[in-house]
User: Which sequence fits this backbone?
């Protein structure tokens, strides 16, 4: 069953918070993982793997580099869950 | 003989007694025990025969940033906390990074990270294994964490010699400063091995106390009813620097490091050589470096883990070295309060030795209710004033593998 943008954003924000301590309400769709949230590649991989489990989707390694903003990740996960 | 002198200018600790060095020292003097029953669910689920330990009084997650706790094994987290405290205590000096080094120690390394990752791999597959697993579990992780935090570029080294590890690291730091490799070295050790596997293993070899009904009195060095050591965790750090460097910046000086020696038994992987000959040689060598005689020693922080065999073996080595003068030496066995920090033990005990000289006060050995007649030592059981004048003290550590390490300190005026 497809997840809503709001559901994925809220769930992703929790994963980002758990990994980095960044407040969940700071994790917004237009934020860049690297430039705005200061998340490095190691944390990004951990968040991606945790998101795969949480949302029951597959996020291929070659796709991760395209997920520049929170919105990119939410869109990918939402589509993959459909 | 070199006129170069090495001094202690900073201390830090996170221990079963408290989250900082001054609070740890205060709790030690107050006769507190850091040992308590483990409340973790795995104790009952796995039916561990030993259900207590000396856990860090302040969890590292309450001190460090989230990303630091995610990227560092607990053994590195403790190291970072103690290292930062020691550095701040030393006045956070401006040091040429090329003249700043780290000599750290751990007995086991990142055992939590290693075993958690193995569980994850088996239960969830390789993709779920954290990318930082290997750098987190490696035994040099704690040293690297401190080195990066303080920008130490004169070498970041790690000693692994079981329970002798951090005394050996301090001895190495002394050597490295004397040899001119650095002007300032952060040294010490850390351990975070209160995990069911090491508990099961140590219990299987009958090394741990099984006093489950009264954990706070389980660590009882020299007591006739002692039945093993209490597993502890935490870290302690010392900032060592050349006296010249310390004086030039007007640093506070706690004490002088005057010797550090390492020998090996080549006898048995876990049992100490009953003759104590190599342990004795380590003590004599440290005193020789200090240009001191045995009669100069007024205080010893003993290794004294509270095992039936180990406490006697150390006593035999002490008697071999000091002869009748041993009866004049105030001996403290502080593992009674802290438990056994394994790779962090030598560092916290060196810190206690430094503070004993600095404050002219030998710390107490708790839980000694009936002293073993085969160990006739003058054991300090309540804080005891040390005399005025030049004071010399040693701290001993011995480890599985037959490692013997001794550091000697002198009061500084």
Assistant:
């Amino acid at each position: 069953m497809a997840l809503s943008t709001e559901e994925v954003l809220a769930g992703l924000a929790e994963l980002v918070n758990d990994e980095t301590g960044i407040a969940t309400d700071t994790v917004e769709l237009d934020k860049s993982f690297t430039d705005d949230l200061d998340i490095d590649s190691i944390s990004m991989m951990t968040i991606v793997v945790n998101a795969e489990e949480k949302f029951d989707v597959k996020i291929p390694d070659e796709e991760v580099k395209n997920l520049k903003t929170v919105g990119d990740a939410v869109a990918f996960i939402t589509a993959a869950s459909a | 003989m070199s006129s170069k002198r090495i001094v202690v200018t900073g201390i830090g600790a996170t221990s079963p007694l408290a989250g900082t060095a001054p609070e740890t020292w205060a709790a030690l003097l107050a006769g507190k025990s850091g040992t308590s029953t483990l409340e973790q669910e795995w104790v009952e689920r796995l039916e561990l025969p030993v259900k207590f330990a000396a856990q860090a009084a302040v969890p590292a997650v309450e001190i460090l940033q989230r990303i630091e706790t995610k990227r560092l094994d607990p053994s590195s987290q403790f190291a970072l906390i103690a290292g930062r405290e020691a550095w701040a205590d030393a006045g956070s000096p401006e040091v040429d990074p090329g003249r700043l080094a780290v000599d750290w120690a751990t007995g086991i390394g990142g055992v939590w990270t290693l075993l958690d990752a193995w569980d994850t791999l088996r239960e969830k597959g390789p993709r779920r294994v954290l990318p930082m697993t290997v750098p987190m579990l490696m035994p040099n992780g704690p040293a690297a964490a401190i080195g990066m935090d303080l920008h130490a570029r004169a070498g970041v080294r790690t000693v692994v010699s079981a329970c002798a590890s951090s005394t050996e690291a301090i001895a190495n730091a002394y050597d490295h400063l004397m040899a001119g490799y650095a002007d300032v070295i952060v040294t010490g050790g850390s351990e975070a091995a209160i995990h069911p596997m090491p508990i099961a293993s140590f219990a299987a070899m009958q090394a741990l106390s099984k006093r489950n009904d009264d954990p706070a009195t389980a660590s009882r060095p020299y007591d006739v009813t002692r039945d093993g050591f209490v597993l502890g965790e935490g870290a302690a750090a010392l900032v060592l620097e050349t006296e010249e460097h310390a004086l030039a910046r007007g640093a506070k000086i706690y004490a002088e490091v005057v010797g550090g020696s390492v020998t090996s038994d080549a006898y048995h992987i876990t049992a100490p050589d009953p003759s104590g000959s190599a342990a004795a040689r380590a003590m004599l060598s440290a005193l020789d470096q200090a240009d001191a005689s045995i009669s100069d020693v007024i205080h010893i922080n003993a290794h004294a883990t509270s095992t039936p065999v180990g406490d006697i073996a150390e006593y035999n080595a002490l008697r071999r070295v000091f002869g009748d003068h041993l009866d004049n030496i105030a001996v403290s066995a502080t593992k009674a309060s802290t438990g056994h920090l394994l790779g962090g033990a030598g560092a916290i005990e060196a810190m206690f030795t430094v503070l004993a000289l600095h404050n002219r006060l030998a710390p107490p050995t708790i839980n000694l209710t009936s002293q073993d007649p085969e160990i006739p030592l003058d054991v300090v059981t309540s804080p005891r004033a040390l005399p005025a004048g030049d004071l010399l003290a040693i701290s001993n550590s011995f480890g599985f593998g037959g490692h013997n390490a001794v550091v000697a300190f002198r009061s500084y005026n």
In short: The interface with chain A takes residues 65-67, 70-71, 124, 127-128, 130-132 of chain B (CB under 8 Å).
